[in-house]
Amino acid sequence: MKKETFIKSTIILILGGAITKALGMLIKIIMTRIVGTEGISLYMLVFPTFSLFMTISQLGFPIAISKLVSEETYNNKKLIFSIIPFSLLLNFILMLIIIIIAPYLANDLLKEPRVLYPILAIALVLPFDSLSSILRGYFFGKQRMFPHMISLIIEQLVRLSLFILIIPTLLEKSIIYAVTGLILVNMISELSSIIILLFFIPNKKKIRKKEIIPDLSNVKNVLSIALPTTGSRLIGSICYFFEPIILTLSLSAIGYSNDYIVTEYGIIEGYVLPLLMLPNFFTNALSSALMPIISRNYVLGNRKEIRKKLKQVILISLLIGIPSTLILMLNPTFFLNIIYKTTKGGNYLKIIAPFFIILYIQAPFASVLQAINKSKNIMYDNLVGTITKIILISICSMFKIGLYSFLIAMIANILLVTFLHFKTIKKELY
């Protein structure tokens, strides 16, 4: 029965992932063609800040709730109602922080005044993203993947529709309004996702008054899992946040213009990496379905079954990732031209593509470590990788190799973090 549930959940996630990834790619194509390289470069300059605050906003709640719900020892309604007020308070604080730091971040660190309003727009999106993630965590814990799939598809369709209807009008006013609109669209799309997820929540049992009252013990249980998990994600997000800042400061110091830095960084983040991340939805889907199964087997002490599941997921990930990566590596400009109507980024794509094969097995490793209560190891591994990446960006920039310094740092991070994850898994399970 558990095996059938795992297979069914995985199939649903893969199908849903394929659809949402296809819609995501369509959105990316339309977005890049509407706002152009300039708009994408500004958007990608803001996106690391967006990613950082989304990570803090979610605080690892989805994974923690998924794990606790899957253990079937908690009152799920009371668990959810306990964490929502805490989440709303956290998001209110984050909104104030964004309003305070936005001018300094845009003008002094990123040296691009045009991104001020897009950064401020992030504040409005956070509460919706956080609530959506909490609801998804519940359905993952229940291994009910269909609501998750439907909500993501609807979310993408709403985002696509808004891009087509609103962004061109905003672009007529200015590129700043258009990029700000790209951020704010997420608020409405996340709201649509929340509505869909609420529709699937069981309503057979009435919600009692005592279940609505927050329970501090539930909050502590969630945070005991969420904080180490967030620590790991937060390290990656902080690194991502500092990437454009360090690149801008380092390359500006040796004579590169700000326009060159913003444009080339935008090409890598907006064109190259999305192509390479296409197969990643398979590994993410497999990893998400894998975690509850691993968690149960770990409690039962069934390490043999854990190893078996991990091998299956890695094999499938490689069977999908290797051919995809090789095709992109051998024909970089062909796919860039078809999808984005540009050949910019082909030189970057050809160099970094082979190393993404290693990245595709990093997600299953991380899921196993989370399921066996080794979230702290993920955090430490990412910390080492992040420090290495930041140092390499700074050092390699001195050699006047432009954005290739960024690629070198990224490759080193992928290899190091994946190796450290594997080392811990081998120690714990073999």
What would you say this structure looks like, in words?
The chain is built from 17 helices and no strands. It has 430 residues and is an all-alpha fold. Helix 8 (216-253) runs parallel beside helix 16 (375-397). The radius of gyration is 21 Å and the shape is globular. The model has no long low-confidence stretch (mean pLDDT 85).
Summary of the model, kept short:
The protein has 430 residues and is an all-alpha fold. Helices cover 86% and strands 0% of the residues.
Key terms:
430 residues; mainly alpha; 17 helices; globular
Order of helices and strands: HHHHHHHHHHHHHHHHH
The biggest beta sheet, please?
none
Specify the structural class.
Answer: mainly alpha
The tally of helices reads: 17
Mean pLDDT comes to 85
Strand percentage lies at under 5%
- Gyration radius (Cα, Å) is 21 Å
Helix coverage percent? over 70%
Number of strands: 0
Q: Choose one word for the global shape.
A: globular
Tell me the span between the first and last alpha carbons.
26 Å
Low-confidence stretches: none
Detail the topology: elements first, then pairings.
Blueprint: H1 2-58, H2 61-70, H3 76-109, H4 116-141, H5 145-173, H6 175-200, H7 209-212, H8 216-253, H9 258-276, H10 280-299, H11 303-330, H12 332-340, H13 346-352, H14 356-359, H15 362-371, H16 375-397, H17 404-429
